[in-house]
């Protein structure tokens, strides 16, 4: 019998576990996540109101987006393969009083146990950290209910993204710890949308997320997918 190999890179997990205690410090290595979180939330809620929705946050880390979606009225479940970030997330719910259900699981594991269980799924800044991102997309397609909405975000793969996301963000501006990203794992929009369609999902929108270093501000920009970008897609409603 073939043994299932989990879709996880343990070296990637260790990177984030070593920093996990500072996850909720808005001036730490996770400042970028705190800065872009309102934009991510706005992008999601512009497409689908979260109040009353069952939401799954895949690769939730320390729970920054998970808690924001819960505060918007959703019933949120967060899953991650990093045990330490999950403990940080759980501890933060005790401080904040925001209810989120956290589980140590991969998307594939969770899909096997909870098919078609969620109205909204978010998978932000995860795909570029796993060995088989297409498998995560397929698992998310299994987890979403007919008519449900999915949101992915990742990094484009081109010379500009190498310059901005690695040389600029990690080494010059120090917005992220050096070594956070591996350029070869960046994902072109055409690749991601191909995986999405192969999973029988429909692409609704693609929007870029840009950073202006002089004013130190992020913004959504539909015309610029060169570095960071978000994809909104949907599972067709049942006939």
From TrEMBL:
Among Pfam families, the record links this protein to: Methyltransf_23
EC numbers on record:
2.1.1.222, 2.1.1.64
Query: Keyword Cell membrane, does the record have it?
Result: no
The reaction(s) this protein catalyses: a 3-(all-trans-polyprenyl)benzene-1,2-diol + S-adenosyl-L-methionine = a 2-methoxy-6-(all-trans-polyprenyl)phenol + S-adenosyl-L-homocysteine + H(+); a 3-demethylubiquinol + S-adenosyl-L-methionine = a ubiquinol + S-adenosyl-L-homocysteine + H(+)
Q: Which residues are recorded as binding S-adenosyl-L-methionine?
A: 40, 59, 80, 124
Top-level taxonomic group: Bacteria
Instruction: Specify the enzyme's EC class, one word.
Output: transferase
**One Gene Ontology molecular-function label:** 2-polyprenyl-6-hydroxyphenol methylase activity
- Give GO terms for biological process: methylation
Write out the entry's keywords from A to Z: Methyltransferase, S-adenosyl-L-methionine, Transferase, Ubiquinone biosynthesis
Pathway membership, UniProt: Cofactor biosynthesis; ubiquinone biosynthesis
Q: Give the family per the record.
A: Belongs to the methyltransferase superfamily. UbiG/COQ3 family.
Q: What does this protein do?
A: O-methyltransferase that catalyzes the 2 O-methylation steps in the ubiquinone biosynthetic pathway.
Q: Would you tell me the protein name for this molecule?
A: Ubiquinone biosynthesis O-methyltransferase
Organism equals Thiospirillum jenense
